[in-house]
Amino acid sequence: MSDPNAASRPVQAVVLAGGQGSRLRPYTDDRPKPMVEIPGTGTPIIGHQLSWLAEEGVTDVVVSCGHLADVLQKWLETAELPLSVTTVVEPEPLGRGGGLKYAAARLPHPDRPWYATNGDIWTRFSLRDMAGFHAERDAIATVALARPRLPWGAVKTDGFGHITDFIEAPPSTFEINAGVYVFSPEFAGLLPQRGDHERTTFPHLARERRLAGFTIPQGSYWRAIDTAKDLTEAAKELAALSR
Fold first, then answer.
1. d(CA 128, CA 56)
2. What is the pLDDT of residues 187-210, one digit of tens each?
3. Residue 1's pLDDT band (cuts 50, 70, 90)
4. What is the rounded (10 degree) CA torsion for 137, 46, 111, 194?
5. Rounded CA gap, 99 and 194, in Å?
6. Are 201 and 192 in contact (CB under 8 A)?
7. Staple 34 to which of 9, 17, 149, 237, CB 3.0 to 4.6 Å?
8. pTM to 2 decimals?
């Protein structure tokens, strides 16, 4: 029996892997940010992402390269990958939106939906569920939302100004853009040739109620790897999860 939702599930994705990763130095002195490994995993961030995308039914990925592009391209050429990968390098800096548009032009199925993810995200949740959510809401773009833990301790107070409790690294009360997306086919045509889609395309879609937000399910792992401290924290968290 055929699955009625199969047509709305992307089989293609873009990974944005061109950032400088300056806050992750010295790890990014000789490799791009997505090639940095989480200690103890033996896998670079992008290797984890490609495995996750393949598990979620993706067969074709376009990787947008930038900083030390040749290092990433060489790894992709020699690694045993679970899907087909094409790389693109922007001829000049196009901004996040322009870079996304440039990479999307190489997707093999322009008439089908697609996923996109930032190259510094280490996460695991059901992209199939996110794609279903996207289709049900008739959205043009759906953004994954995370509630990360704050890097500081927090306090609770009562109405008289007395501190009643200390909370170590509590979850944020706000949801943030988790750097994972589902896009309908027409989204690529709405992207700027150059510039940031989060300041142009996304606000436009939000006004039209065509931008959806999918909250990553509670208990699912998510972390953006921006600094050396993130690497250390991720290693601890992933070790705890594997016990």
1. 6
2. 999 999 888 898 999 999 999 999
3. very low
4. 90
5. 7
6. yes
7. 17
8. 0.86
